[in-house]
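Can't paste images in this forum, so I'm doing it all in text. The chain is below; anyone willing to post the predicted structure tokens underneath?
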Amino acid sequence: MLNLPSTLVATLLAVSGAVYAQLPRPLINYPLGLSPVFDEGFFAGTVAPSASIVQWAPGKAPQACVNELAWNNCQSGRAVVYNVTYADCPTPWIMCRCENADLSIYQMTNFFGRMPVHLRSTVRHVIATHGEGCSAYAITGPDDGDIVMQGNCNTQSVWLHETGHQLDARGLGTGVGFSTSPIFVNALWNDTCVADDYGNTALWEEFAQMTVVSQSHTIYGYIQQQQYPGCFDSQLNALEMLSRLAT
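Text version of the structure:
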């Protein structure tokens, strides 16, 4: 899920209205969604680097974390903040959780760390709150860079999807996100399918779902269990090219 400011949504609709004629696409490559196909492989094929976890002093928290936790019914006094430094990057990430969050700091560190550092680098704050089941979203503007896990979000595809929104938001330095750039839009037009039903709802959701697919492709060198092999290859190639430009 992507939280977009209403002004940005209006702009996207005005600028790229013709694009929306391209969605929905006629074919769905993964009709049951991505998690049943990819999550087991993510856990088998990745490992988080070792990490040091240092808790901030009580009562200290970035304002963005305070604001988002408050929006999720967590009072500022219940926010717990950590610097998490992975062995593959000297710069720590800031992780914020409510005291009653379903994910522990160790789970947050593990799920986030299983992603490659170039994807992690698109995220500013990792935030966890309490919730029923799992819901997640990315904040991409105007105060962007954060991903939020509500509930027990213990599937890697969810973490990759929300981080994919941050990759998308990096754009090409022109104020246009990757998902609405001509490169990705033309790729979608050339393909016959989208990743799954959720990807059929909006360009940015398809981009985020293709981020999940791309990561599996990077790990294993092939795409698993496709209903229509090759039907989204143009999107995959465009995303992987755009990812290299952004990092």
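The radius of gyration is 18 Å. Residues 2-44+171-241 form one domain.
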